[in-house]
UniProtKB/TrEMBL annotation:
PANTHER family the record matches: LETM1 DOMAIN-CONTAINING PROTEIN 1, LEUCINE ZIPPER-EF-HAND CONTAINING TRANSMEMBRANE PROTEIN
UniProt membrane topology term: Single-pass membrane protein
Transmembrane segments: 138-161
Annotated organism of origin: Cnephaeus nilssonii (Northern bat)
GO cellular component terms, A-Z: mitochondrial inner membrane
Keyword annotations from UniProtKB, A to Z: Membrane, Mitochondrion, Mitochondrion inner membrane, Transmembrane, Transmembrane helix
Molecular functions per Gene Ontology: ribosome binding
Protein's cellular compartments: Mitochondrion inner membrane
Domain Letm1 RBD stretches: 186-360
GO terms for biological process, alphabetical: intracellular monoatomic cation homeostasis
Main location class: mitochondrion
Name of the protein in question: Letm1 RBD domain-containing protein
Length: 360
């Protein structure tokens, strides 16, 4: 009797626990029917803080881009000349910043892999060389901008003297051609002085055969003939020691060669000689890297830039002629030793003065 009552009590207890109450039953029916009160749990979740920040940044960027586009169209329509200067300056800043980031990456790789400058690829070497020149030119603007309110004067000077104060990134396409022609005219003025000095040192050459070769070369160049490669390489010994070696050049000849390489001449002779030797060594290292890469791997702009650096005014010369001239230069440069770099320096005049398309 007692046992049956215990079993009945347990059955009643389990039944009350399992059987849902009317409210619960109604709730389950509404859930199954899709009629629950309020929104589903997932729809009431808020976005994470990171998603909110990304959404806000995207919205601000979109609005800023739209406003910037309207501003550009306004300037282009009502102030076309100022718009050209504005776009050139902004694009120049972006290009200069990108060049700085690339130079930093190249230097980091050099430090990481213990690589020297002359062991880099041609494009990396040329990028570092050009970026150093650009930064040096911008350094002057940074100095004169230090005094209070001097930045207004700097902007005026940049507008009035863009060739002297700004780097190539801030030149318009027309200015790039005009300024390169101006710079080439400057170095062309040094060509007669360099050739005159070569004629003066002919009696100082001890070897009779080399003296005859030098006389023939100077005569041919003065007649307007482009010299052959073997005629220049035949004079290697003259430029390795007295009287045309790098350490034996006269101070006036050093200044003339500096102008031919577009380097400043407002330095003492000792510093001019050292800088000229360093610059020629860098070009020689670039030539070896370029010969390893191959001229055919260069773009048209890279070929023209390489020719201009080495003394040829490539702004008005066809791309195929530039490649031919650059191949001649490399053939001479790669056959020279470090002690014969004075010939490579004079080659800026010897190989470019009478090339087809350069005489005007």
């Amino acid at each position: 009797m007692a046992l049956s009552r215990l079993c009945w009590a347990r059955t009643a207890l389990w039944g009350s626990a399992v059987t849902p109450r009317p409210y619960v039953t109604r709730r389950l029916q509404l859930v199954r029917a899709g009629l629950t009160w309020g929104a589903p749990w997932s729809s009431r979740l808020h976005l994470s803080p990171k998603a909110d920040v990304k959404s806000l940044i995207s919205y601000v960027a979109t609005k800023t881009k739209a406003i910037n586009g309207k501003y550009h169209r306004f300037l282009e329509r009502y102030f076309p000349r100022f718009y050209v200067l504005y776009t050139t300056f902004t694009k120049g800043l972006q290009q200069l910043w990108a060049d700085g980031k690339k130079s930093r990456r190249i230097k980091a790789d050099m430090a990481k892999h213990n690589v020297k400058f002359h062991q880099l690829s041609y494009r990396d070497m040329e990028h570092l060389r050009q970026f150093r020149r650009d930064v040096t030119k911008c350094f002057f603007l940074g100095i004169i901008s230090i005094p209070p309110f001097a930045n207004y004067l700097v902007f005026l000077l940049m507008y009035l003297f863009p060739r002297q104060l700004l780097v190539r990134h801030f030149w318009t396409p027309k200015q790039q051609i005009d300024f390169l022609n101006i710079y080439h005219d400057i170095r062309k003025k040094s060509h007669p002085e360099i050739l005159s000095y070569l004629e003066k040192v002919i009696p100082l050459i001890s070897d009779e055969g080399l003296r005859w070769h030098m006389t023939e070369l100077c005569t041919k160049i003065q007649r307007g003939t482009h010299p052959a490669i073997h005629e220049i390489l035949a004079l290697r010994k003259c430029f390795s020691n007295h009287p045309l070696g790098m350490n034996q050049l006269h101070a006036l000849q050093i200044k003339a060669l500096s102008r031919a390489m577009l380097l400043t001449t407002h330095l003492p002779s000792l510093l001019l000689r050292r800088r000229l030797k360093t610059h020629t060594t860098v070009i020689h290292q670039l030539d070896k890297a370029l010969a390893k890469l191959g001229i055919n791997q260069l773009t048209d702009q890279e070929v023209k830039s390489a020719c201009y650096l080495r003394g040829l005014n490539s702004t008005h010369i066809a791309e195929e002629r530039c490649r031919t001239w650059l191949a001649e230069w490399l053939q001479i440069s790669c056959n020279l030793k470090e002690a014969e770099l004075s010939l490579l320096l004079h080659n800026v005049v010897l190989l470019s003065i009478n090339y087809i398309g350069t005489r005007r």
